[in-house]
Amino acid sequence: MPIKLIPDNTTIHFLGFKWPALLLSIVAIIFTVFLLNTRGLNFGIDFTGGIVLEVRTPETAPLDTIRNLLRSEIEGDIALQNIGSNRDVLIRLQAASKDASQSETVAKVKALLEQHISPDIEYRKVDYVGPQVGHELIQAGAMSLILAIAGMMIYIWMRFEWHFGVGAIMALAHDAVVTLGFFSITGIEFNLASIAAILTVIGYSVNDSVVIYDRIRENLRKFKKMPLEELLNLSINSTLSRTLLTAGSTLVALLALVLFGGEVIRGFSLAVFFGIVVGTYSSIYISAPILIFMNLRRGTGTVNA
């Protein structure tokens, strides 16, 4: 007999907490806007510009050793990752001192690597990422988020009704903004991987919302006279097992990445972990209650709360 973590036919009155949940979301969004205007984001080299070196070591590159060595001798943001093989390392850095020339910084990095790692290190590429490139990447990242959210809204609008599209777009915007707040309050470096994390979060969130919306549409046809709030509670409860099991299994995998995935992907993993929690919350307390506030109608019949 299979073990059921979530009992069948749960009757939790989720929408009984719709007003406290709405207040919580409003406070979180306002707090995020405040943080972004005061503290801002900890932009990485991808956006601020800096120096990029691609090096090859004779043997497996000791990333932690190189990272600690450079951070102890050079002030500023430093990021490392393997590319292609465990001997190839991409080093991105931005010196904290504006007086230090790029050539001096590169020369210092080379001297440290040759002295403490290996004199036979091969420098395959040395590039400079200018501020203009970083500005263009910020614009491209923002545009990718806007297009992803707009595309998902159009998909839901066409698949369901326009009310559902509005509910989905508000939930996705909520998730993206609150995740940005997470980056701001934690000070985790915001780079291209962070954009990927936010896109991952809104992709997960819209999938969760679509599952609930499917059940809502099904129940609207089945229970034509049921009050809307009661119908939404029924729909959320009937998909609760799937929602929690999917979120739980995803969070377990992400927790493993946070603990054992290494520093290179830790920021990405933490952001997605936080975003999955927020996305699960928004699919219940943003996507569904919006249908009540908009007085969802189906055909010529009206379902009133």
Tell me what the structure shows.
This protein has 305 residues and is of the alpha+beta class. It folds into two domains: 199 residues, Multidrug efflux transporter AcrB transmembrane domain (Multidrug efflux transporter AcrB transmembrane fold), CATH 1.20.1640; 80 residues, 2-Layer Sandwich (Alpha-Beta Plaits), CATH 3.30.70. Helix content is 65%, strand content 14%. It has eleven helices and eight strands. A four-stranded antiparallel beta sheet has the order 3-4-2-5. The longest helix is centred in the last third of the chain and has 31 residues.
Descriptive tags:
305 residues, alpha+beta, Multidrug efflux transporter AcrB transmembrane fold, 2 domains, two-stranded parallel sheet, 11 helices, elongated, disordered C terminus
Shape: elongated
> Low-confidence parts, pLDDT < 50 over ≥5 residues?
299-305
Distance between the termini: 39 Å
Number of helices: 11
What structural category arises from helix and sheet content? alpha+beta
